[in-house]
Specification:
Distance between the termini of chain B: 55 Å
CATH class of the largest domain in chain A: Alpha Beta
Largest sheet of chain B: 5 strands, mixed
Structural class of chain B: alpha/beta
CATH topology of the largest domain in chain A: Glutaredoxin
Largest interface: A-B, 47 and 58 residues
Largest sheet of chain A: 4 strands, mixed
Number of domains of chain B: 5
CATH architecture of the largest domain in chain A: 3-Layer(aba) Sandwich
Oligomer: heterodimer
Strand content of chain B: 15-25%
Number of strands of chain A: 4
Distance between the termini of chain A: 28 Å
Radius of gyration of chain B: 26 Å
Strand content of chain A: 5-15%
Shape of chain B: globular
CATH class of the largest domain in chain B: Alpha Beta
Number of domains of chain A: 2
CATH topology of the largest domain in chain B: Rossmann fold
CATH superfamily of the largest domain in chain B: NADH-ubiquinone oxidoreductase 51kDa subunit
Strand order of the largest sheet of chain A: 2-1-3-4
Number of helices of chain B: 24
Helix content of chain B: 25-40%
Radius of gyration of chain A: 18 Å
């Protein structure tokens, strides 16, 4: 389990849902707030929303899987967001993504089994002058190189295995 | 116009746009506030955090007024010196000033720098000059003046003025804004809606974000003017949830506008009642398409629908709806203030006004630039952007986001406007300009865009869903050296089918990156196919890096930066790459100052 994952509490959901009228046009906003609280969208949250708005769970689920912003699995203690916008891409973001896989064994959307690290790609951070950029939780690492990402992983306590290739 | 300050007062503006924030401008801003709170400075000082100044490459930027000093790449450590020297004594700190690469001289004011001198700011007029969270700042720079004027006019007069200005939608389509409003106003209905499309999804484009973050009131004022023109009572701003600063600043701006009576019932004592709600998007690229966006606001999955009936007739919840892009809205108050003729005097025959571009990629001055329509690509990339770093050769510029096209070097003198870009096989899109040099592989870049679009295609219609998947498979094969010449014909066939048969603009334009690179860079495709060679040295299966002994000075920079420890050699002797260890990341080539690392 991820180190920062919090116990699922019904009260948390109720607090969020109470801010919105029980109309289906607020489903997206409710899901965003739940995810903001837990860093992912727990099944219990989707069930609460479905019951509150009075739609089938499948409907909430279809939205949760359609919109890219949502994750149905918990994120790691350190969540790496590698920007794969065009500017970052032509400056080598794909190599950074490969390096993370090489050293941590995770691909975009995945979390390490110990819950320490997760990886996702984002389409554009709007920080193209810093390309390629990697965000670890909130901290932006600018102009990351293929060797620089190794140092970044280490700085967050990642074990670098020399068993590459 | 700068805020009125006397000689004994100084205004310090810290750029807190996304680029500068990522570079640590918030620490600079806090350090500045602390410094001014704890130390005695003889002049009166005001600090402001502003929106994006555009010149992200040199951020964090700090401007000092009225002296008109611009400091680049400021860190929190520089603050005590700035306070002691510049604020106290008006003394310049040379090392923080921009150094003109041509004249080698330090430059004091941003107005003297080519990057700014050659721009013409309309939509971005306030950004970097005002505190986005302050409605007073906006009002001081003629904000809400246009609204006062508009409320004295009839709706038809307003629409007429917008038509005469020649304003076309800045979100990509380029549809004449005034005609859209006119069509919507003509429909018989009791309820009409207004939407601001702030679901900027193009990777490498951040102008809308910059406007929403840096000058939210101009968007709001534009929407209120439209509400009067078409008779709408509610509006929505659909903005990406990831743009947290934009969401925050828009929220503050809407509240302030309500308090001042610019939003709500009977605006400024008139008959007009209008209010705005923020809807946060869920990060689906297709939601930038207007019908998908409306489906999303309604609380559905964001799938587009066929547009045999336009949103101006049946849009949000089946009611006539005007949907315009952020930058379009930002132009509206300017047109109403200065009059249509003044706006129409800028630009080309078919495209009036200015356009904001995000100039990124392999270019020296990365940032946001605003130029009159009709400016050449050369002027933007070399005049404003400062050219290609490292003295490398320009290869192409990609315009229009993922579904735009790549324009080659021999078309650098193309005058950029809606029609010329379309003729060149690309499009304006939202205004991304991604500069590519000789180390960018055009096949791989086509694969990248197709991969992006395949992931973002909503899957509703077969041509887009299946076409992208098939193109991705073929392009991935070519990048691995597994392609054949017949693949190229097949790619074209799929692309042309998608252009005709897809449901929405995403699918119709998705083949552009493939077709335009096939048109202009066919040789590069053929090298991959016939010679199993990637001329740019990007496709890793087709690339081997080696060190040319002639230029190699043995400085060891490549070895130091190699993540695999694959490079060895004695100091001051030519180095060698161990091919068994090399992962073809190309870092050695990026680092080499002597152009000694070559790709084969």
């Amino acid at each position: 389990m991820a180190a920062d994952s919090r116990p699922i509490k019904q009260k948390t959901f109720t607090n969020i849902l109470d801010q919105y009228p029980a109309e289906k046009r607020y489903i997206l906003a409710m899901m965003q707030d739940v995810q903001g609280e837990y860093k992912y969208l727990p099944r219990e949250g989707m069930q609460m929303i479905a019951a509150y708005v009075d739609v089938p769970l499948s409907r909430v689920y279809s939205m949760a899987t359609f919109y890219k912003a949502f994750s149905l699995v918990p994120k790691g203690r350190i969540n790496f967001k590698v920007c794969d916008g065009t500017a970052c891409h032509i400056k080598g973001s794909n190599i950074i993504i490969d390096q993370v896989y090489q050293y941590l064994g995770i691909r975009p959307g995945e979390t390490t089994p110990d819950g320490e690290f997760s990886l996702e790609t984002v389409n554009c951070l709007g920080a193209c002058a810093l390309a390629p950029a990697v965000v670890a939780n909130e901290k932006v690492h600018p102009k990351v190189t293929s060797s620089g990402i190794i140092d970044i992983i280490k700085s967050y306590g990642g074990q670098i295995n020399a068993t590459s290739n | 116009m700068q805020p009125a300050i006397n000689d004994d007062k100084r205004m310090i503006l810290v750029c807190c746009g996304t680029g500068c924030l990522a570079n640590g401008s918030m620490e600079v801003y806090r350090a500045l506030q602390e410094q001014l709170a704890t130390t005695e400075v003889q002049v009166e000082t005001y600090t402001k955090s502003t929106g994006c100044n555009g010149w992200c490459e040199k951020g964090p930027l700090v401007k000092i007024m009225p002296d008109d000093i611009t400091y680049c790449r400021v860190t929190a450590k520089d603050i005590p010196e700035i306070a002691a020297k510049t604020l106290q004594n008006g003394e310049l700190i040379n090392r923080l000033l921009y150094r003109d690469p041509k004249t080698k001289q330090r430059v004091k004011s941003h107005h003297e720098i080519d990057f700014y001198k050659k721009q013409h700011k309309v939509a971005l007029r306030n950004i970097g000059e005002i505190d986005p969270a302050s409605i007073e700042d906006y009002i001081q720079r003629d904000g809400y003046k246009a609204l006062g004027k508009v409320l004295e006019m009839t709706p038809l007069q307003v629409i007429d003025e917008i038509i005469k200005s020649g304003l076309r939608g800045r979100g990509g389509g380029g549809f004449p804004t005034g005609q859209k409003w006119k069509a919507c106003a003509a429909v018989d209905a009791s309820t009409r809606y207004i939407i601001c499309n702030g679901d900027e999804g193009d990777p490498g484009a951040f102008m809308d974000r910059s406007i929403m973050e840096g000058d939210p009131h101009t968007v709001i004022e534009g929407m209120i003017i439209c509400a009067h023109a078409i008779g709408a009572s509610s509006g929505f701003i659909y903005v990406r949830d990831e743009y947290s600063l934009a969401v925050k600043n828009l929220g503050i701006a809407i509240n302030d506008a309500r308090t001042r009576g610019y939003l709500g019932p009977q605006i400024l004592g008139s008959q007009l009642s209008f209010d705005i709600e923020i809807v946060r998007g869920g990060g689906a690229f297709v939601c930038g398409e207007e019908t998908a966006l409306m489906a999303s606001i309604e609380g559905n999955v964001g799938e587009p629908r066929d547009k045999y009936i336009y949103p101006t007739e049946k849009g949000l919840w089946g009611q006539p709806t005007i949907i315009n892009n952020v930058e379009t809205w930002a132009n509206v108050p300017v047109i109403m203030n200065g009059g249509a003729p003044a706006f129409a005097a800028i630009g080309t025959e078919g495209s009036k006004g200015t356009k904001v571009f995000s100039l990124v990629g392999k270019v020296i001055n990365t940032g946001l630039v605003e130029v009159p329509m009709g400016t050449t690509l050369r002027e933007i990339i070399y005049g404003i952007g400062g050219g290609i770093p490292g003295g490398r050769k320009f290869k192409a510029v990609q315009t229009g986001g993922p579904s735009g096209g790549c324009i080659p070097a021999d078309m650098l003198d193309l005058q950029v406007d809606f029609d010329n870009l379309t003729k060149a096989g690309s499009m304006m899109g939202s205004g991304g300009l991604i500069v590519m040099d000789e180390h960018t592989c055009m096949v791989e870049i086509a694969r990248y865009y197709v991969n992006f679009l395949a992931g973002e295609s909503c899957g509703k219609c077969a041509p887009c869903r299946e076409g992208l998947k098939a193109m991705l498979e073929i392009l991935t094969g070519i990048c691995k050296g597994e392609g054949s010449e017949a693949d190229l014909d097949f790619l074209r066939e799929i692309g042309e089918t998608m252009q005709i048969a897809s449901l929405c603009a995403l699918g119709k334009t998705a083949p552009n990156p493939v077709l335009s690179t096939l048109n202009y860079f066919r040789d590069e495709y053929l090298s991959h196919i016939n010679e199993h060679h990637c001329p740019a040295g990007v496709c890793r299966d087709l690339t081997r890096f080696y060190i040319d002994v002639e230029p190699c000075t043995g400085c060891g920079l490549c070895a130091k930066n190699c993540p695999m420890d694959a490079i060895s050699g004695d100091r001051k002797e030519p180095h060698v790459i161990d091919q068994d260890k090399c992962i073809q990341c190309g870092e050695c080539r990026n680092q080499c100052k002597f152009d000694a690392v070559k790709a084969r």
